[in-house]
């Protein structure tokens, strides 16, 4: 229950931050704000200062910043519709920009606590092409197939958006200050279970399973928390990786204990031999402490990573690489954060903080980007109309803009209902 409350508070704070951006830019532009609220629904408490009522509402999700003349014309001098188009643009952009600024500030804290994430090779797999090509631990990866790598986690992101193809992969790296380039065959045969997990987080939660894989056939699901493998206790994703490094899969059945909805379960999995394309090394989750300048630079890189992650996810939705079923709404997000808090509690308060920071940065970057998209009923939709007004030097007819936003709002609500349904199905373990 405590973890759920923490998750709800985190989610709400990020939305309030968004509304705070609108509020501060509105005040700076001299626009009247009738109410700034934390939460939704009926008021629990409120007070009035100046022209603004500050309210705490019953439902702990979101918030609002109600401005004079925002949704309808007003003759008041301090109305939103009476201000210059560029002042209104700044007010609209203020919310998303505050989300991105929040992501950067939280990244500063994360990097200061956990270190930067340079793409340093910390494991080269025996017998793989990377080993035969001469890659070594300590090498710093600069690019893969010409695609630049900024931080370690760019590697799985890059491979997800640009899968390895053919019989050759080209890797550029830095060793002892010298740039070097190698090419090798990424094709490999190996035993696999078909599971994915967060190796960089202090948790042993399965993030995904390959459809039809041995793990899926054995009954494991995304969200299950691994507690033991062949009798060896497992507490974190890193311990899963360490176990399989010390005990490579050879086709023999393995016993996996896991938690699902608080209930301990056990299953046996027979690894399958698969043909795969692999870089043959690990450089995704290396961390190293940094000084002041390194923390600043690392925060920019961390924020940039999550912005790239968000744009890649959107591109996959538009191109069919992902579907609405893969999306999560407030219920799914709160559930995911809650599970992460519960898992991290096994290893201490610092790990809980680091995981919450990671989620907060991801969500804040997402909110910033999504609200800038030119979708009616979102900030980006209003921004698009304002930009058209700036070019035309006169606003579009209010009734036409209102109709577009109304249609957009209805479609957005329909999407939210579908996403909520998917969240509940996943939460109940029905899909």
Structure overview:
The chain has 431 residues and is an alpha+beta fold. 45% of the residues lie in helices and 23% in strands. The strands form 6 sheets. A 4-stranded antiparallel β-sheet has the order 5-4-6-7. A 4-stranded antiparallel β-sheet has the order 12-11-13-14. The longest helix has 30 residues, at 85-114. It is globular, with a radius of gyration of 25 Å. The mean pLDDT is 85.
The number of E-state strands comes to 16
Number of helices: 11
Coarse structural class? alpha+beta
First-residue to last-residue Cα separation: 24 Å
Secondary-structure map:
Elements: H1 2-28, E1 33-49, E2 52-67, H2 85-114, E3 123-124, H3 129-133, E4 140-144, E5 147-148, H4 154-161, E6 169-175, E7 178-184, E8 187-192, E9 195-197, E10 206-209, H5 214-217, E11 225-229, E12 232-233, H6 237-246, E13 254-260, E14 263-269, E15 272-277, E16 281-282, H7 292-319, H8 330-344, H9 349-370, H10 379-392, H11 398-427
Antiparallel strand pairs: 1-2, 3-16, 4-5, 4-6, 6-7, 8-15, 9-10, 11-12, 11-13, 13-14
């Amino acid at each position: 229950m405590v973890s759920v409350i923490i998750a709800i508070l985190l989610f709400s704070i990020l939305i309030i931050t968004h509304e705070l951006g609108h509020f501060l830019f509105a005040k700076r532009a001299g626009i009247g704000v009738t109410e700034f609220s934390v939460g939704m629904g009926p008021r629990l408490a409120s007070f009035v200062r100046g022209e603004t009522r500050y309210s705490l509402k019953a439902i702990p999700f979101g918030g609002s910043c109600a401005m004079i003349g925002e949704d309808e014309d007003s003759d008041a001098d301090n109305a939103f519709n009476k201000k210059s188009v560029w002042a209104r643009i700044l007010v609209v952009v203020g919310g998303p920009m505050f989300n991105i600024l929040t992501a950067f500030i939280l990244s500063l804290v994360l990097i200061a606590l956990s270190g930067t994430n340079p793409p340093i090779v910390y494991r080269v797999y025996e017998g793989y092409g990377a080993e035969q090509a001469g890659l070594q631990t300590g090498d710093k990866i600069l690019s893969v197939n010409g695609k630049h790598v900024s931080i370690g986690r760019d590697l799985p992101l890059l491979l997800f958006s640009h899968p390895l193809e053919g019989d050759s992969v080209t890797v550029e790296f830095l060793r002892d200050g010298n740039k070097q380039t190698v090419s090798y065959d990424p094709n490999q045969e190996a035993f696999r279970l078909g599971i994915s997990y967060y190796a960089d987080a202090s948790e042993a939660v399965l993030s995904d399973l390959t459809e039809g894989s041995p793990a899926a056939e054995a009954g494991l699901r995304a969200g299950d928390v691994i507690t033991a493998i062949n009798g060896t206790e497992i507490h974190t994703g890193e311990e899963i990786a360490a176990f399989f490094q010390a005990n490579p899969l050879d086709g023999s059945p393995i016993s996996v204990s896991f938690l699902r909805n608080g209930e301990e379960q056990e299953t046996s999995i027979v690894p399958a031999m698969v043909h795969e394309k692999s870089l043959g090394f690990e450089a995704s989750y290396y961390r190293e402490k940094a000084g002041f300048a390194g923390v600043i630079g690392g925060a920019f890189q961390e924020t940039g990573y999550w912005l790239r992650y968000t744009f890649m996810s959107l591109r996959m939705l538009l191109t069919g690489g992902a579907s609405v079923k893969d999306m999560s709404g407030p219920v799914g997000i709160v559930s995911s954060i809650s599970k992460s808090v519960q898992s991290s509690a096994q290893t201490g308060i610092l790990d809980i903080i680091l995981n919450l920071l990671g989620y907060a940065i991801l969500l804040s970057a997402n909110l910033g980007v999504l609200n800038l998209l030119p979708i009616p009923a979102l900030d980006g939709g209003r921004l698009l109309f304002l930009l058209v007004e700036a070019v035309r030097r006169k606003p579009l007819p209010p009734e036409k803009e209102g109709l577009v936003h109304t249609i957009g709002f209805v479609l957005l609500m329909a999407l939210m209902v579908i996403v909520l349904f998917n969240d509940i199905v996943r939460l109940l373990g029905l899909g």
